[in-house]
Each structure stands twice: as C-alpha cells, then as structure tokens.
# Entry
Amino acid sequence: MELSDRYSPKEVEGRLYKWWSDKGYFAAQDQSTKPPYSVILPPPNVTGQLHIGHALNHSMQDLLIRWKRMSGFNALWMPGTDHAGIATQGVVERELAKEKLTRRELGREKFLERVWGWKKQYGDRIIEQMKYLGDSCDWDRFVFTLDEGVSLAVRRVFVQLYKKGLIYKGTKLINWSPKLESALSDLEVEYKEIKGSLYHIRYPTEDGKGEVTVATTRPETMLGDVAVAVHPQDERYKALIGKKVRIPLTTRSIPVIADEYVDKEFGSGVVKITPAHDFNDYTIGIRHKLPMITILNRDGTLNENGLAYKGLKVQEARKRVLDDLRAQNFIVKEDPHTHSVGHDSRTGVVAEPMLSEQWFVKMETLAGPAKAVVENGTVSFEPEAWAKTYLHWLNNIQDWCISRQLWWGHRIPAWYCEGCKHINVAETAPVKCEKCNSANLKQEDDVLDTWFSSALWPFSTMGWPEETETLKTFYPTDVLVTGHDIIFFWVARMIMLGLEFRGDVPFRKVLITGLIRDAEGRKMSKSLGNALDPVELIEEFGADSVRFTLLAQVAAGKDLKFSVPRLEGYRNFMNKIWNAARFSLSVLSDFSPPATGVRTLAKIENLSDADSWIIYKLAECERQVDELLGAARFSEAANVLYDFVWHKFCDWYLELIKPVLYGDKQTERVTTQLVLAQTLNRIVRLLHPFVPFITEEIYQKLPIKGEACIVDAYPNPKSDRDWLALGAKEKAQELDLVIEVIAAIRNIRGENRIKPGDDLVVRLSPVEASAQKVLQANKAYIMKLSKLSKCDIDVAGSLSKCALTPVSIHGHKVDVIVYLEGIVDLGEERKRIEKAIEKFQKDMTSLDARLKNDNFVKNAPEDVVVQGRAQLVELSTKIKSLQDSLIRLN
RNA sequence: AGGGGCUUAGCUCAGUUGGUAGAGCGCUACCCUUACAAGGUAGAUGUCGUGGGUUCGAAUCCCCCAGCCCCUACCA
# Structure
C-alpha cells in the first residue's frame, strides 16, 4: 500500500510546490506556438498578509491559470507587490515612534533607508503565503512597484501626460489628512454618519441694527468666513443682500450675497460661506470671486487666522468657539443633527477640506475612451451590474489629485528652477533649467499616489516602455479578478491608461468577486476579531480544502459567508478523493497499461455495464465542467466534480466493480482495471486546477500518467473524445436501472428496519423483455450491493407477504418484490406502501389536472405534453402495483 | 435622494433560455460491510419574504409592499 490511510496535506504541499517550481512549470514563454493566456495578479501590499479575501481571489486566478495551462495555453500569471505608500510608511513610522523618533527628525534619506530595510525583512511575507495556497505564478517575472523598470514607466507616463496637458499643478480645495499631513484623493475619503449639532448663530449687521441667523455644523470655521449667502428669492432676507454682517468673535465684516445654491427651507435659510474649508462654499466662492481664508495648518491646528484659537486642534477650537459664542449670547439654538463627515480612510481621522497646491490628472479626456470600451463590450464585467457602477463614476468624474506629501513612493519627476521658477518635468534629473539654463534646480518633494503606478501595472510589469516580447505576446491580458471595492481606484484607471499608452484595453474581462463575511454575515476585520486567517486554516485543513471550499461557494460578485463546518465538509471530500485513489491503486497493483498505449483503447471490447456507465458519466461531467469553466461559473463546476467523484465514482462505480476486481475472470478484470486506471487519471486531472496538491500527489503514483499533472492535458469532450466514445448511452441507462433496483431494495430494507447483515430473498418482475435481459446480465451486482441470498428474475410469482416497489427509468419497468414473511412486522411495510401510494396519487392528481387543461395541451411544447402523458400512465401502473401488494400483505 | 443587490429546508447557500425545487452542514434510525466512521445505507423537513399581474404553467418575467445589505451623491 503506497498511500497512507489519511491524507496529510502538510507533508505533501511544501514538497510539491518546490518541485513544480524547480521544474519550471509555472513559467510562461515570451515566444511560443501555444496561444497566450494571461492574468495579472492584483499586487498585494508589501505590508499585507494573506487574508481570506486574497485566498478567494487567488484561488479563482490560479484555477483559471492552471486550467488554461493544462488546456494547451501559454499561460502567464504575472506576480508582483505594491509599495503601498501610506500603509508601509505608516508601519515604519510606528516603529520609529517606539524609538521616540519621527521621520522628520530622521530626514528623508535615512527614513527611506529604514523603509527599504523593513521591506526587505518583512515585505514579501505575503508571497510565501501565496505559495502555501498553491498559486502558480511565474515568479521569475516578479515585479515590485518601486523597481527601476516600473519606476521608469511611471516617469514616462507622468512626463507624457504632463506634455499633453493632462497632468497639471494647481491650487484647489482638496481633501487633507491632518494625521498624514498629506493630500488625499476623493476616493480615499470615507464618509461616515456623525451625530452632531446644527448651531444657529447670530451674525449682527454691520450697522448694529439687525442680525441674521446662520445655521452651521462647524462653528469654528466662521473664522474663515468670507460671506453669508441667502436665496435670491427669499423675501425674509432680500433687503439684506449687498449689506454687510459682522462675524461674531471677530472684527471682520462680510457681505451678504445671493446664491441659488441656498435652500430656503433648511436651517435658517442663511449659509455662512467658508470657501477654504468646504466644497460647496468653495464653488460659491469661485462663482462670486470671494477671497479664501485658510484657517488650518498642515497638522489640523488653527493658524494665525484662527485669532485667539490659534494652535488648537479643530475639535478643541470648536468647543472654545461655542463656549465664547454662548457666553456672548450669539447662539440662538442648537438642534441635534446627523450628517456625514469625510474621514481619511487610512487613518480614520476626519479629513479636512483644504486649499492646497497639488498635482492633478485631468480625467475628462481619459474617461471618454474608457467609457466607450465598456459600453461597446470590449471590456466586460461579470456580473454585468458593475459596468453600471463603473460608467456612473466615469460620468461624474473629478480630476484626480495624485500628489502626496509622503516620502515612500515614486517621487514626482518635476524640478523647480530656483531662478525663474519654471517647472522642469523630465524622466531623468535635468542638469539645468530648460528655460533659463540655471543649474539651481530642486526636485519636487511629493510622491505619487500609489494608485498611479498601479494604473500602469498591466503594461509596466511587462517591460514597457520597451516594446518587449512579453508585451507583444501577453498584452492585453485575458481576465482581471478583483473586488468591487477597487473598481474606481484601480480597474477604471488601468483601462484609461492602458488605452492611452497601449492603444488597447488592459484586459478583456473583469471578474468581480464578493466579500467574504463571517458566519453572521459581518465583514471580517481585525478589529472585530472575526477574521479567519487562511494561513492557519491551510495549516489545519490543507490548502486544497481551503481552495475548494472557496471555489465551491463563489457565485459571481456575491458575498460569501465562510464557515468552518463547511470547510470540514470539503476537507472530508479531500479525504474521500484520497481514499478512492488509495483503494484504486491497491487493486491496480498488478496492472500495467497496455504497451500499445492509450490511443488503441477505442478497441476495448466487452466493457462491463459499469465500465460503460462510468465512462458515460465521465463524459457528461467533462462536458459540464468545460462549459462552466468557460463561463467562469466556478462553483457550479466544482459541484459537478464533487458529485461525479463522490456520488458516481465512489458510491457506485467503485462498489460495482469490486466483484470483478476480486473475482477470478481475468479478462474482465483487466478490462475493468484499465477503465478504473483511466477514469482515476481523468478525475485527478479534472480536479487539479481546483485542488492542485492532492491531485499531483496521487497523479505521481498512477499507473497511467505523464510527467506531471500540472502540465498534463485538461480533459474535455474534444481532447478526450476517443476515450469518452467508449461510454455508450444505452449501456449507461441499463445500469441506471440496476442502480434504481438496488436503491429500491435498500429502501425496503431501511424502512422495514431489516438489519444490514440479514440476507434477503427478492423477486424482480420485469414488465418487458429488455428489462429482463438487463437484470439478468447484472444480477451479480444486484445481489452483492443489496445483500441478497436469492434473486429470481421472473414475471410470475406470489405477492403474498411481500414488499413491493415499482421502479421505472429510461423506459424500463420492473417491480421489485421482497419476501418479508417471518422477517418483519408487516405493519411497517403497510405504512410504507400507503405513504408511497399517497405520494403518487398526489402527483397524479396535479398531473392529471394539467393534462386535462386544453390550454396546456395546446400551448406547451409537445415533448412536455408527451412526457406528462407517459408519466401519468407510469404513475397509475405504479399505484396499481402498490395497491395489489397492499392487499396481499394481509 | 439616486442606483444596485438580497429574502429558497433548522443553518449556510445553489438554482441563466418559465415545465412544478437541490447541495453541504445539522437532525433521526441502523451499520466498525477488508478505500474511507473525515465513512456507509435509509429517512424527515420547504404555502421558494407579502400581495398582485403576465402565462396553459412562475422560485424563475413584470409591478407593489416589507425587511436586510451595499454603492454613489448631498447634508448650512
């Protein structure tokens, strides 16, 4: 016995992964006669750890890659990692904090050395974890976003977009993180509902004779007010338009302006305008050419415009301002008010709208073609609904703020001339200013948004801007597998830049995965403590079990609840596969494949019904798997395989062939051994992309095999035609009858509580000659699998004290009759038969009603009607048989 | 506010051309039958969220309502 009685993944997985890797099986060829197939791995963050979402995403990609590789494609899975600007810098800054240091104290260069050191030491832990999962990436091509090649691509893209006028530097109101002290893109701001108050504040008119009441949630920003606005048609305030009011707590007076933006119904109908700290106010400010007063510093404290509140953080300033307003009786009222407030999605602090000079990408020009390719189907989303989300975003797109006041990342390739202030944008550091020739140049301190380099990933990883063979062969890629949370961040931007710089889409199809939730449906997160660590799960259950659990449950774009009991179920499936293989190999120990090879197999004669049946079922299975994988319906493919392996191959085929294998008819035995060996070989190959380790391990011990499962052919109805042709439908259907008969006997046994050990005497009463022949031919199977001491096949005979079950399938009809006298209390059997009659009668009533409906007969497809009629006849004969037997039980 | 999704067996979920509902787990009974007790055999369980419409026929298509979730935008 070559295999141990339980599959232990631990011992197998590491060894096989290394072997595959050493053999170079993961490598794709830049030039090949095989058709190309490529997938880009969404580069995980270097700070990252494999989480269950990765495990799902990667299982899907690896399934595709392995399937295509086995199907004769030159399959490339392009791996890499992302420097993840903010996240990584944050990790190292926290380390520094433990040493009571800040990055500024260390200085840019020293700090970056630390980050690189960290990256080298811990950075690619996730890569190791990907290998645990079995990811078959082409590791020789591995790329890091800060590698020189990719960095050159980043600079090239930046310079070209700048020259085209698609990148510009400008002062705008942007989202600012006081914690990071950096700009954020709109997408990095997360809005959360906050319970706050709406403060109604008196603003006295300049002449001191009147006042208006302004409603605001942010009283501290009044220090940056430059106007108050009312609706032009608001009768209450019409007279005030053009007059001035004084900002409480200050000596400044500001004009009352009219703008249709103001909602008369909300609050007091008067809005304070703070253009430097609010997006709506900003647009109003521009419309009315108002000054803009910034009251905050980079770190979110108030600056000198904050007057007495200078140096305070926003929250503290708000409290103090309110105290003073209350003390001086400026507060009219305070209403509770819930509103959503933007937060820095990275650090969780409140993001402040700030007026700031930053670099932007102009999106409108790039968005047009990116919309077109999705509208015309060049790029498709699965599920399709996401295309709508994508298009909606592109239709309302804002310019992309790409500069970050961080150090870890691609430094913006712009050099400021200290002499003439000209901005030199170039791929490499210029020696002198292109305008005034001054050598006094200083590079931009800011780095690019991490997503900028990600946007180029599909071609930058392939060697662009060189026109490499890799690019020629593998761009555009075939499928992108990713979560819906980064459709805007990443998918849209890759499409835009792919079209701009390659003139072609980066991928043809976007497979959107759902989120993985816990058993209660909550998001998995560290803070909730409900996150399952896939690495731990792999250690406990094996990578294959984890992969199969995910793949068997993933429905396009739908969230997936992950539970350990389910995982245990699929771990059991792995064990089932293992034991089926173990059994097969033991009965194949004296088998050697025919010297003539596989090609001549079509000449096998005298296949048993069981052999013919399993080949036929295999053909059905291969056809479905082929279709389902092609349609990216992974879970359905997984379930087809599960059902075939467990409930066809193990439950029936292996049981049916035991008499032959243990028997002494050598010719039959050899034939069955051959079919078993071939079927097992195909099962292993079919399963391989789902569960690579266990299948390779078994494969290497098969009597019929090639070099390695990972590079053997994937069975499909076309490639496997010769073999599958051996499975005859008629034979398979005959065996289906045998299975039904066995099931019927077992049912009688079970329902009548007859011990499994007790032998039974059975008479099979076939209705027509064909069934008679089938039963006769397969009598041995029936006797063995339903444990009979005697089995007559005869139309005539007594029904006295007998259990009866009518069986009919594929047109064959048989009454299964079990002698019960002296074995059981007949009451049980009476109940069983009454129950069966009742059920059949119920079916018959509804079927009969349908068939009596003229409209049904007229409108339904003919085959449905014919089928219905046949079924009706069948039901009535079944009922009659049962009634007869009921009478004879007494 | 707009958009999308979900609601099917006790639990978690499948169910893509509308033909009368499935899986896994759990549960019950019996069984250590020499591949597998992480197993085998048999069994129980569903007015497919509510109401209406289209149809001969609806879990499936359309509308209403309810509950839950997500996204985008706005919120003085």
In short: The longest strand of chain A covers residues 189-204.
